Amino acid sequence: DVHQWIQHGGTSIAELRAFIGVAMNMGLVRKVNHVEAYLFDEAIHDSQDPSWFSEHFSQDRFNLLLKFLHFADNNKMPSDPQDPGYEMFKIQMLITHFQEKFLQYYHPHQDVCIDESMIGCTEELRPYPRQFMSNKQDSFGTNLWCLSDSTNGYLCRFEVFKDTLKKPAARQALVMRLLQDSALLNLGHHLCLDDYFSSPALFKELHKERTTATGTVSKHRRDLPPQCVTAKLKKGEVCEQRDGPLLCVAYQKTGRNKTVFLSTATTAGFEEVQSKGSTTKKPKCVVLYDKTMGGVDISDDQVYMYLAKLKTLKWTTKVALSLFGRAVVNSYIIYEMNTTDSPKLSQHHFMISVVESLAGDYYPT
Known about the structure:
Layout: H1 2-8, H2 13-28, H3 35-39, H4 51-56, H5 59-68, H6 89-104, E1 111-120, E2 131-132, E3 140-149, E4 155-160, H7 168-181, E5 190-193, H8 200-208, E6 212-216, H9 226-230, E7 238-243, E8 246-251, E9 259-263, E10 270-275, E11 278-283, H10 284-292, H11 295-305, H12 315-338, H13 347-359
Parallel strand pairs: 1-5, 5-6
Antiparallel strand pairs: 1-3, 2-3, 3-4, 6-9, 7-8, 8-9, 10-11
């Protein structure tokens, strides 16, 4: 392969645009999970027909670009592994680009959430250990810490997994960093979190920054009201305690272990909600949590619906293709909010238009 690249490795911006477009289209035209199936088939000339792929790349050329795809000059890589820029050097330029662009053209609604997302990979993504999360569409891979709009799933800010954040202080620092880097503090936003991040100290710190928060919390966190932690509740009962702006609610939804919530955004008491054609009552903070926590999952569903899973051992390529997919989803959300098209393009047809704009005019000579 190295000899092939030396002999035939010259490329161009047009070819790389086409490469990205073809890689994206492999998630739209699902045949089998092998490059060969896309590059060796015959039919009409259309981007959604398998023959379209072989018109733009031979199998060998596509695999050659996939193997040698780089996003940084290795000659400029820091020599010291302890250098802060060492670990992410090979992909940092692309990460920085998307972090800037994601907020350049969009400001989120009031409700935002922070949760983890997964970049699927069956092999270890060096230098980061492979993670396992059973509740994600790809159970194995590396994490992205994501700050998303709860209304539509728009990805506002993200960080690639760097450490396990075992200490609550490290998790609190991550939350504050994501909000600060997004310039969302002191603007009246409401943040939703799960029990991995939530703590009384974090919620009080956010309140000082004019940012309310709601989330589930582990009963082992420090400074929780002991009445809520130890309360013996029956199904549907709650125990509510307030400490200044912070409300703590223990809620026994079912006969299983009770769930503890924190909020600086709601008052105590119940709210009527519609569920399966009937009206039920839930604590106000639970209703708010259910409404605003799913932003990252919405984004994941949209990304993985059409994300191509190419076989590669390079963790940088895995991250890059995932970021390209998330950029297209963000673009579609902006399109939906601003277009005057009637009817609007579906996400599938929007992605087809992106693919054809990237690769449609490229044909190898």
